[in-house]
Design brief:
The protein has 12 helices and no strands. With about 240 residues, the protein is mostly helical. α2 runs antiparallel to α8 and α5 crosses α6. It starts with a helix and ends in an 11-residue tail after the last helix. Bound molecules: iron/sulfur cluster. Iron/sulfur cluster binds next to α9. One of its GO terms (biological process) is base-excision repair, AP site formation.
Amino acid sequence: MSIVRKLASKKQRALEILNRLQRLYPEAPCTLNYATPVQLLVATILSAQCTDERVNQVTPELFRRFPDAVAIANADLAELEAIIRPTGFYRNKAKNIQAACRILVQEYGGNVPARMEKLLTLPGVARKTANVVLAHAYDIHVGVTVDTHVKRLSYRLGLTKHTDPLHIERDLMRLLPQEDWENWSIRLIYHGRAICKARNPLCDACVLADLCPSANLMNPPQQELSSVLPAQTPAT
Ligand code: SF4
């Protein structure tokens, strides 16, 4: 098959996968709790190497004490660390959150800029966080959010051969219409949590089984998957 035809059939398969997942998860809101773009930015930074559930356990107290960028910028670092400690890597996260909020206050009037290149200059913010914030706070879609679930499922579904987020994101951006980039990510995250689990995917219960080259493979190519399957990293 020519490269062009291969890409076209992969695109069709990706769209069919998305259709099915949209039927399965018609409502798929962001699972982090937040009230403002600043709070979403902070919650997303906290979600690195941590479950959204755990982040949602600490953010009510965090946002009660420090509701906006100004409050976080001026917070006592030790208090910030104590509140976010359950999310892990709390010293680094507290430092990044405070440094990011200081930049928001100094350069953006306490608001989160709605531009990828500006977000990427904030401490603790890489493309994954920036994509989440742009999509959910501003409905701006400039990339595909690639978290641990999107990595694993996109690989298993044969839509990428890559294991690093940047290349996976590029592959997915080629396959999917821009308006569906966040639809794709959020639904893969839901499906990864419910069915296509890291260690024991429930292929018999999966609506994508007939489209998935990894369906019922008891022994997926572990060598290649080793960097996709999170060994110690809790699913987010
Ligand atoms: S068929 Fe299995 S490996 Fe493929 S997406 Fe579904 S659960 Fe995951």
